[in-house]
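INFO worker-7 received task bundle
INFO bundle size: 2
INFO processing item 0
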Amino acid sequence: RAERSHLEEGCGFEAVDVRLQHTNLLVVSVYLKTGTSINTRPNSSILAELISLVRNWKGVWIIAGDFNTPPEEIAATNVLAEMNGCLCTVGVPTTDQGREIDFAIVHKTLEPLSLLRIDWSVPHKPHASLALRLELGEGLCPAMMLEQHSMHIEVAQAVQGDHNSMASPPTEGKPFQGEWLQDKLPQDEATQHFARVSEAAQQGESCRHSWRTVVEWITTLPRVDGADDPERVKFQMVEFLATGSGEAQPLIDQVERLARQAKDSEYSEDKAQYQAWLEEAQSGSLRPLFRTVKSHELTTVRPFGHVEPGLRPYLRFLQWQEIWGATDCAIERVMQVSQQRAKEEAKKLMALSGQDYFQRFRKLPNKAPGPDGWTVQVLRALPLHACEWIAEVCRRVEVTGEAPAQWTVSLVVLMAKKPQIERPIALLHVVYKAWIKSRYYLVEQWLESFAAKAPWDAARK
């Protein structure tokens, strides 16, 4: 179905909503004005509308068409970051004038599944035709999955005023599940204990966060045009959420009406904000729009883009295995010696308390998390006694030399670097990173002592 369209000076876009299994796909056909930069009208207005549209879209999306500007110009700005998208290009001219101005921008989750091909057997020259294929089946391949702890909302408990309570970590629970194809992660005590701590901590954090969200929403009702008496609505909301009694439909109708009104208002505000942001570059200040990226560092073509998406992870693995000279397993003797030395050193260290971690968690930068549901926001929200649980886990790791299996799994993100190679960034477990940071002075001391005799400090070229 048609979702939204925008036309200005013969340019613009048309967006349609395609319903897929479990999600909505927004497909946008775009045409920008030729000979005009992206930060002047009408292109700035069109892009502002597009950014606002995709940022408020609850699903995935594809934008494709004739941008009348090279992809490098888009990549050199913050437009992709604002959209939460990735460029999808063919890396060759798409017009018979030798320019690549036809390409796609896709939601970041679709980029690994996208295959873009060029076809010159079309009647609408001077432009070639682009065929974008989504290999959705490849996105369902078995992969390393860590248990995502359910976020239960204990509203009745929150209504009674016990907003800061958290359940104690249970001594027993279901086995921790994590699989890579058919190989399971270790089921040792450290892994099981951390799984129980994770479940208790995250459920408690979710309870408090969810209730705060409800309270904030209720208190903002008077500021919304057409809202009923806020005190009456608050009483009805609390009664219904806590006990399930009362009439639900009037509340549902009001929530839907307010949600539509808020969405329209946010969309209009976003569009005005992004258009001002885009056009500000024209007034002389380029910083809001353009990143500090050198022209030779820009890349819009990734390796293996011409092969099927399902093969790309394996080709990347083989490429980096060769670069790093990786082996299939750890060198057992080295691991044993390193573990023993770490345990001996840990005996000399003073244990960090829950208060230490409580203070450190609140200073953590908001970085992307690992795969099992722990986030920086969760760490910041933990009360002191939950930080004591984390302190106990970390101390166990130090004295036993055995870390939870959850800490050994990371998400690897490949950043565009050159057409021949990408830059891998590993997203580690946030609790592991917080623990490492608290003891990082030991790593710095070792680096200083080892630097003088290190034969190399980088990957082979």
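INFO item 0 finished
INFO processing item 1
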Amino acid sequence: MRKTLILFFMSIIIIGFLLTGCEEKTASGSDSTKPTTVKTTDSKSELKEIYSKPRNYMAKYNLVTSSDGQSFKTQLTHYFVGQNVRQDMTQDDTEMRIYLIDSAMYSCFSAPSQGWTCYKFNQLNKTDEDKLRSEIDKYDVVYTGTRTIAGKVGQCYKMTYQEANFEACYTSDGVPLFFKSVSPSGTMEMTAIQVGTASSSDLTLPAPAQEMPNYENLIKQYQQN
């Protein structure tokens, strides 16, 4: 139970950093950086155009988060089909999936000797990434060049506003290949290692959804284990 709760709360944090975009062909490869080129168009306008892209892709990432001197490393996979989202994360023998389907949120997990269990609860509040997209006019946006990540060429940008700092790279279709967030509370960095397509079948829950249990009870179970 302790491991499941850790994955659950980590997934809640990460789900906010899901970005827009779509991609057609699966690929994997190394990460390389090319020299920055001078752009004649406005970087912020380009970023807004990227955020307006339709979403239909699968992307697998290496994830590293750091806070209060502690770090967490794992891999996660994102599936975007229109406005619906699935995020997978595995730590040791426990697998966690978060689904955002038709304005509802579902949390599913599976552990050894157990089948899948899914819970349904209300949509999350606006997250840092949501705020970045909806409040992009507040940010200073600088184009920083191109990087080849997972076999895809990404256009890269740096966004800053007060104490918030973001770096991101996107394909021409809007798939996020790299995303880094730096704030006083910590850092989060995602780097794509595989990019491909997603379909509606990827958004099917692995088990019927139950009502989400009381958070206070979950915390008590966490403290007891």
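INFO item 1 finished
INFO post-check item 1: The first strand starts at residue 32 and ends at 33.
INFO post-check item 1: The radius of gyration is 18 Å.
INFO worker-7 idle
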